[in-house]
């Protein structure tokens, strides 16, 4: 945190020096100095070539401090958001920024102890640089928050020029356009919301106003290897992703595909397993300021892309004395959103995720998760917002034993 603050102050001081050096020759003030007046026409923020995929509750493109170089060829944008989260759990769940049905205890695995929590991990700080060159604009984005395992986490860190993008940002297998606004950091149950290091190439409006993008993404396999097997897992070949999206009069639609490549070594033997995944989403404009959101995801060897199943080792399962198997995973959610007033809206979401049963897996292994969420957001004033969320969730095990939990969240934040 101290290092981030120091970097921020250095950039701020440096920008102030640049502004002093870029003082205009008019507008004299009393002490003999000049001031520089910037208008929207002076900035590069309207650059249409940069790739910015905003998720719900992301800092708006019109927020931040814009600093422009004297030659008008470089722009620095400093942006941030202070976010204060209040959580009340009817049962103590480990993750506070996201509701995960995998963590719900069943009657045989935990006691129902309520829990209250406050946190600032969702607070964000970011920098964006746009530089004009003779062959097009170069755009660089760095955004962080404090929700990582050790407190600090990189959300986005990438560079883009023309149709090429290099670095970490949203996976092409994620469908940001169809995500409803939620206090829950992870989005709806059954959704795919992942950021990966990647190389991407985008073809805008390639076929009848349809945007096509292809990528090579790095997302290491998520395996739970038995102690009896001396297997080392790694990613030898990047995941191959492709996405197509298009806007219509009635809303928008998106399709994505992925071929995940899982690699492992047992002694001198090298094994490569290819999975598959498909995801589709749509937004439908509805009556009386209403809107519907839908997403469905299915595949094998893709469990790490689901928030509920990340880090649980379900990409591949190993039967006793046998080979390996890639369980089928399916997720789905549906949301209805209604705007009550230009500054007030609510949404209602049902989410579902399932992991294929296997005869050799333990009876208490996770099988299905259900959630119902209700969110309401109020734009208090320019930049200041608050959101409230009520969640009910249920976990079902392979043997049919289940547990349920509820959570109430409040989020207060200011984007500057």
What would the keywords be for this entry?
416 residues, mainly beta, 3-stranded antiparallel beta sheet, 21 strands, single chain, 16-stranded antiparallel barrel, Porin
Total number of domains: 1
Shape summary: globular
- Here the CATH topology equals Porin
Series of H and E elements? HEEEEEEEEEEEEEEEEEEEEE
CATH homologous superfamily annotation: Porin
Instruction: Give the CA-CA distance, first to last residue.
Output: 19 Å
Number of helices: 1
Q: Return Rg in Å.
A: 24 Å
Mean pLDDT: 85
Write the layout of secondary structure elements.
Blueprint: H1 2-21, E1 65-68, E2 74-89, E3 115-119, E4 124-133, E5 136-145, E6 153-161, E7 164-170, E8 195-207, E9 210-217, E10 231-234, E11 239-248, E12 251-259, E13 261-266, E14 269-274, E15 276-285, E16 290-300, E17 328-341, E18 344-355, E19 366-381, E20 384-397, E21 402-415
Antiparallel strand pairs: 1-2, 2-3, 2-4, 2-21, 4-5, 5-6, 6-7, 7-8, 8-9, 9-11, 10-13, 11-12, 12-15, 13-14, 15-16, 16-17, 17-18, 18-19, 19-20, 20-21
């Amino acid at each position: 945190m101290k290092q981030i603050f120091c970097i921020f102050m250095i950039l701020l001081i440096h920008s102030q020096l640049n502004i002093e050096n870029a003082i205009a020759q008019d507008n004299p003030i009393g002490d003999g100095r000049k001031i520089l007046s910037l208008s929207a026409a002076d900035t590069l923020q309207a650059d249409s070539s940069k790739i910015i995929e905003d998720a719900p509750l992301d800092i708006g493109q019109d927020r931040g401090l814009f600093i422009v170089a004297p030659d008008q060829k470089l722009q620095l944008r400093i942006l941030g958001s202070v976010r204060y989260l209040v959580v009340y759990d009817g049962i103590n769940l480990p993750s506070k920024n996201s509701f995960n049905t995998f963590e719900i205890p069943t009657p045989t695995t935990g006691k129902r102890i309520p829990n209250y929590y406050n946190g600032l991990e969702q607070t964000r700080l970011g920098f964006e640089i746009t530089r004009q060159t003779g062959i097009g604009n170069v755009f660089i984005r760095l955004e962080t928050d404090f929700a990582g395992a050790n407190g600090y986490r990189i959300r986005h860190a990438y560079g883009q020029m023309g149709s090429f993008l290099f670095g970490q940002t949203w996976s092409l297998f994620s469908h940001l356009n169809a995500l409803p606004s939620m206090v829950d950091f992870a989005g709806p149950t059954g959704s795919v919301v992942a950021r990966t290091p990647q190389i991407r190439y985008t073809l805008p409006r390639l076929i009848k106003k349809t945007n096509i993008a292809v990528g090579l993404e790095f997302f290491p396999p998520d395996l739970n290897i038995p102690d009896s097997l001396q297997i080392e897992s790694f990613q030898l070949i990047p995941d191959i992703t492709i996405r197509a999206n298009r806007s219509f009069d009635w809303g928008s639609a998106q399709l994505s595909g992925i071929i995940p490549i899982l690699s492992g070594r047992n002694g001198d033997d090298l094994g490569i397993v290819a999975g598959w995944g498909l995801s589709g989403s749509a937004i439908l404009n509805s009556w009386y300021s209403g809107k519907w959101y839908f997403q469905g995801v299915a595949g094998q060897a893709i469990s790490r892309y689901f928030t509920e199943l990340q880090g649980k080792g379900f990409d591949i399962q190993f039967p006793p004395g046998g080979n390996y198997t890639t369980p089928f995973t399916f997720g789905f959610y549906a949301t209805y959103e209604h705007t009550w007033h230009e500054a007030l809206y609510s949404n209602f979401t049902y989410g579902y995720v399932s992991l294929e049963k296997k005869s050799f897996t333990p009876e208490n292994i996770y099988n299905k998760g259900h959630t119902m969420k209700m969110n309401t957001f109020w734009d208090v004033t320019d930049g200041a917002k608050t959101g409230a969320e009520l969640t009910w969730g249920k976990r079902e095990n392979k043997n049919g034993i289940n547990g349920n939990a509820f959570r109430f969240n409040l989020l207060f934040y200011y984007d500057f």
